Protein 1
Amino acid sequence: MSAEHEQHPLFLPLVFVGGLIFGFGLGFSHMAQPEVVLNFLQFEDFGLLFVMFGAAVVTGITFFGIKQFRSTAPLTGAVYGRRLKTLDKNVVIGGGIFGVGWGLSGICPGAAYASLGIGNITILYGIAGMFVGAYLQGYWRSASAESDAPAAAAD
Amino acid sequence: MSLSLSLFALAFGDLFPNGIEHYALGGLFVGLGVAVIYLGTAIPAGASTFLESTLSYASNLSRFQQYHPSRDWRVVFTLGIVAGAFVYAATFQSGLVSSSLHQPATTGEFLEVGGLTLWLTEVQPWRLFLGGVLIGIGTRLGKGCTSGHGVCGVGSASSASFVGVATFLLIAIGVAQLVAALGVSP
């Protein structure tokens, strides 16, 4: 994932095309409408399950299937791997905080970007909030990382 | 037999009052977008890292600078998402293209600008902003959002992502029901 990968002339165009398909899907499935997400969370319309798990099935088949054919990606040379994160208390605490925000607003990052694309300028309140929140946690965590291990902060 | 079938259809209609076709098809597109990027680059792209990687343009904090190598393509990914949703707005949402698999919006309000139909939410700005702040904190602390954990992580059969999704899904359901019960709408 280093910057040198971006030197392949097709890297950024491919990322853009992937984003284009991704954003079109969020528009078509109405996930760019916070009301529809809130209707799901309030048990009035369970359609969101088809969106999230439908997408997960496609990525699952892709992630596990491609390894049958080749081991590295053509544009980056990177090895095909799964998206694995360490399971620790941050996953639960962060997931819980995200859940409160998601339940309050009906938006999540990808759907908020897509919402801007369908004309919903009001979503800028939400996107601005996300940047504020991301900055706050980065500020707190950068400060605590430096006080925990001052020598390790130099990377 | 036919009674139980129609009871099933009735219950199914209650669970999915707007049908399932546009949800399932949209989900396939979301997965396909991730798959296209993954096949070319081996990167399982999530949407929330963009928030921190973009802050690295303006802040020298180590939390943000660690995403320096990926910040350019994450901007391009996000612009692609906005553009893809705009393509939807300019076609299906504006009535230029129609399909039996597509479902017109039943929420929010429409705004006609030229030949373009824009869609605007009626969810109150304070809910979007306050929710956004919590989403910015929670997704970054929790290592992913609905696309990183929900689509890429679940697709990777990652136990951290199963826990993450179960946590934010259950909490969000509780909060949304509570907010609605308190009479806040929309």
Protein 2
Amino acid sequence: MKCSQFLTELNDFLDGSLDQKLKAELSEHLTWCHNCYIVCNTTKKTIEIYRENKIYELPDTLRAKLHDAIVTKCKSSKPTPES
Amino acid sequence: MGTIQTNVTTGDTSEELALIQSAREGDIAAFEQLIRKYDRNVFRIAQHITQNREDAEDVVQDAFLKAYQNLKQFQGNSKFYTWLVRIAVNEALMKLRKRKSSKTVSMDEDVETEDGSVPREVADWSPNPEQQYRQAELSEILEKTIQGLPMGFRTVFMLRDVEGLSTEETAETLGLSVPAVKSRLLRARLQLRERLNRYFKKKKNNDGDQSK
């Protein structure tokens, strides 16, 4: 397997959605290709960091303000009739 | 090497379906529970797309109001969360279009001009590199880094990897094909990785920041 092919399959490899045969081929490539090992490892870490440290968290005060505003608007609105 | 586990559960439970049904009949308290369940997700999505706090606040309000008004159109063919996200994405794009009235805004923006599918710098990272930074600094780094990506890339990454939508749900939400989502996700992941190198790579002795 070439590095370019490894990269093409990287998403499915990280998501665990590859069949066993292809997964084994990619794992084998990682045992000797240091660059792909690093790219794979740091890409996985990238996803984990974004998932575990969610940016743009909604502050509680703003959350309450938005909540009130939405409820007020909903109360004064009529649901769209079923089409 | 382990795989990434999706940690967002978004399946409609019978409890959620009951809330939707009550809200459809005008029970605002039931709808409030749905707001509380998903408002953080909708706010993040709105911020990611508009990159503007005021716009994001408007989008959250507009998206939930539109969802409430159109609850009867929700057929349950998709999950409620996915349906809501689709409304939020559309509202956010409309907001962006208004703001950039002279420019076209679409999911295809800039995606053909950026390559980024081949790693240019391969550098190993320190173990737990995020722990080198205080939480506020880390958030700033993550915001700055993802803001540098074309909208079509960062939106796919955010929906798929942060909010936990499946590839098919992401495609449906953004009106893209499944192969387009896969291709953008790969490029988004690789570009983010590359851009984070400068903050997370292992420091050599006497090494200043040598990255671009």
Protein 3
Amino acid sequence: MKILTGNDLKTGAVTWWDGTGWSLHVADAADVGDDADAILAREEAARRVNAAYAIEAELTASGVRPAHIKDRIRGLGPTVRPDLTLKPEDPDAVREVI
Amino acid sequence: MYQYDHYDQAMVDARVAEFRDQCQRRLEGKLTEDQFKPLRLMNGLYLQLHAYMLRVAIPYGTLSGAQMRALGNIADKFDRKYGHFTTRQNIQYNWIKLEDAPDILADLAKVEMHAIQTSGNCIRNISSDHFAGAAADEIIDPRPYAELLRQWSSFHPEFSYLPRKFKIAVIASETDRAAMRLHDIGINIVRNDAGELGAAFYVGGGMGRTPMIAPLINGFVPLDQLITYSEACLRVYNRYGRRDNKYKARVKILVHELGAEEYTRQVEEEFALLIAQSIEPPFAELERIRTYFDEPAFDADASDELDRTDPDFAVWSDRNTHPHKTPGYVSAVISLKPVGGIPGDATADQMRLMAELAEQYSFDECRVTHTQNIVLPHVRKADLFALWQKLDAAGLGTPNLDQVGDIIACPGLDYCSLANARSIPIAQQISQRFHANGKGEILGELKLKISGCINACGHHHAGHIGILGVDKKGVENYQLSLGGSEAEDTSLGKITGRGFDEAGIVDAVETSVDVYLAQRQDGERFLDTYRRIGMEPFKEALYG
Amino acid sequence: MVDPAQNGLRFRTDAPVSDPAVTVEAFAEQTNALAVRIEPGEDVRLLLPFLDRLRLVEVNFPSFGDGRGYSAARILREAGYTGELRAVGDVLVDQIAYMKRCGFDAFQPDELLDRGDVENALSRWPDVYQPTADGRVPIWNLRHG
């Protein structure tokens, strides 16, 4: 699947296109098919997202998994500070993104 | 240390107002991201993996207690209660909101600090020797020259859209503690045969994907021509540095392609024209700046004795102090490299404690080192034990300066959008490994440096042992190099051979260290042994 | 294209030169030309023999990130050029204060600049550190009378 990610212009937070808006959680990412460029252009112009780009991902049993480790780390947080990730209570979260 | 007058303060305040206005125009849509990006970068604001990142300038690495405290308070107020000290003596905050950035700059301005030109294709923060003004081996304190260069380079109208970034380091001793020759311009303040002070200019060094050691282009620039000569170096670069390829745009490539001799000729030609323009500051200005760096009121009767009764303290004081020019004093190095910790990170509480200790024990001064540690430059030997106890209680007493655990590591793929691989977990595993197996205790000086991509922010080219993270078909892979040095015996490391995975690179470092332990002769450091026996024995052990 | 006179970004009192700016190469050959346009890769010092007849130099900025034109401007002013020095092309409001310091006294940006933003930009800096061709007294000298 193809999904979109970027950062919130004001806060810088990593966001994922969920089909209607931008979510903080990669699990919400929607498959955009061939619409990536059109959505990116529209959303960037409206300043609802900054520095957004399209990436490959796959749907696994545990949810949406970006193909590249960089985007998996973006989706979770720094692997060296589990306390600062989006899943501080999940001891397996870091292992799963690597 | 230097203090702003109303002119300096007004310039920094104007910059805060300017950036507030620029942020506003970005949020309103009057600036596109392409237009805004160079403006925010020139205020130290990056967009990184997880958020905006703000890099704050620490000119020549020198901080007062109040400034260090303000850095801690910013970490609490605007970030997640920590900061990261960098290899260019700056500090970075990792979780910044764009809408907060102008307020942070305003808080910094209140303590005479800023984030001006900590990124972008302009002249960056001027770095220097972290023992400046204290080291027994310096010929003069280099920081007044660095401060003059800071003022000259701030808001320089001609050099804000250079081909690439431009880094300058200034030192004033034979011993190089600032990786001087790995900068775009390295300046060494020297004395000529007549006893006069001048500046030796090395131009065209750098790391990155094409590491180069800067050649000497002028061995003695009189100090009343320092700014004019710098301007000539920059103008030749601004006009002729390559702009067709980002990776060939640093001045090192220009110097390399022209040859040092031809580059020097062009600089001298430009200098001859510029000297007629009288752009040099009045010499009284250098004298004015110099008064701020006068020696503190050292106690002439300070005891040179050290009570070494506590064995842990004795180890720490042997490893983490540096000789001071004044009897009875030392420079103490606070390691930000606890075993298994994140190199260069300090919590807000630790920053405030270091601020307090600087005020109490070091004439209100601390320094950031390019190896991501903190120095209290002027500590009485009589106070050293009390200082160490407080540091140790706060997790800041690790006795590993310049040892295998004192690793330089860039933020890597955990934070950086340019990185190809993670650096920090490798550093953590190596420091844990050598702590657990006890070998860390017997290795002596061993400088290990890790970069998560070819941009080499972790100085891997200059590590006795260097590690470079690369992306191998979506999987992290690590190349090992040996034999680099950023000191006065500057050299660039050589790659051992094929790379390793995450577990493999930690083993490979240990294997290399074992070769050294088996082969070292009396008093040799890892680097000395490598230079004597060459790469082959290491290759044999690694790849057999 | 924005007319610099219309946009108010001309800081001179003499009448603008109406001649079209020619290339550096053509300028050297046309002994009656008064106006020249210089591109980033061209050596501005080729113009120095002709300062007596030059009335307008347009310095082109094809992209705002290419800063060679800043050096070109200062070199002309340092050599004594007093005619109009006009920045043209991808010239952004956040750059004009620095450009003015380098000796530009007219601006013809591809995109119309907001008048309020221009005024803010030009009044931003109370003083300056470096001496340049704009004649402002640097802080270094103010400090020492």
